[in-house]
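Reopening this ticket.

The earlier resolution said the output was attached, but the attachment link was broken on my side. Pasting everything inline this time so it's all in one place.
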Amino acid sequence: MFLSEFLDDIFNKVSSGKSIFKNREVLNIDYIPKRILFREDQIKKMAEILSPIIRGAKPSNLLLYGKTGTGKTMVARYVINKLREHINDQNTIFIYLNCRIDGTLYRVLSEIGDYMGIKIPFTGLSLSEVEKRIFNHLVNKGTKLVLVLDEIDFLVNNPAKRDMGNNILYDFTRYDSVYTVKNGSNSFITIVGISNDLKFMEYLEGRVQSSLRSEEILFPPYTVEEIKEILKDRVKEAFVENSVGEDIINLIAAYSGSEHGDARRAVDLLRVSGELAEREGRNKIDVKDVEEALKNIEKDKVQEAISSLPIHEKAVIFSIANFANGETTGHVYLKYQEVCNQLGLQPLTERRISAIINELDMLGLVTAPIINRGRHGRSKKVQLAVDKNQIINALKNDEVFKLLFNAV
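Inline output:
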């Protein structure tokens, strides 16, 4: 069969068959349901903290903490959307950014500028100049800004840019006292930070912690029973009747709840399972679909986790991947220095690399048990906990590592 005939066969099969999906968008990562289950307390508290903005007063800064898939972003966007409905002041604006997706500190600042209609070149300005343009615009317009920074820890979790990230957060939290008081403006900035990293505050300098003076809301992981109810709600909206049995809902909830309490992962698993069943021309999801979907998601999750690592963490995991049967921290560090040399990076200290290995261990990307080496003392044996090919596939598309792979 020629390729064109093969494609025609696939497309004809889709166009002639019935979809098991009623509304696929309900399963998208950005979808905000009309009814948010098991997060009533967090919604109420966030609404109470931010409500002074309705009267034109500055709300407290706010941090939302919790593991991935615990509803932080969904609740934040839900409350912000509701707040907009109660505000008539055109000078009150809400900006939502995902700091990891935007990628660099410059890009985060330029995105803020773009939201406000400030023309900022793609490159070429210093961070302080971009900040100055944003702050001058806010003062001149008398703008009241609620700035939602999703994955705010990305600004400061990389040692190479931690100082700059701290400076930016400090400047934004000090905006009211420095710019508005000086210019007699009623403008202000309130920061709503969202973080998966419970150690986020440890990355902040003391002056930033003091200046941020935030209120905090914790989002605990969902239980298996809670995930079941969330899935039932999504199934009603997303799928045609009788295409998802209760046994499938229970299975997906068990996979996602017992290990992670991650509702986002559960909904994603439901979506991929449905797509696999539909691809086979079946009108109902079965257990094999869920098992196959789980494999696909785990594979994608590992590559996404590696792709999102800061550059030195990538260099460390690449160094570890060079040892088929694992190696001591000391040998990994020597390889890491060699990799930094090839990439044109300034190596971090061995102590910092040891801490990075611990972080990679916590992410489940490597294992680093302590072993007894007799008279040589105790040491960590570091080796990959994932397939080496997943490391290669994740790094070969990285702009920095691409040069290294090409050289090899």
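Reporter confirms the inline version is readable. The radius of gyration is 24 Å. The chain has a mean pLDDT of 89.
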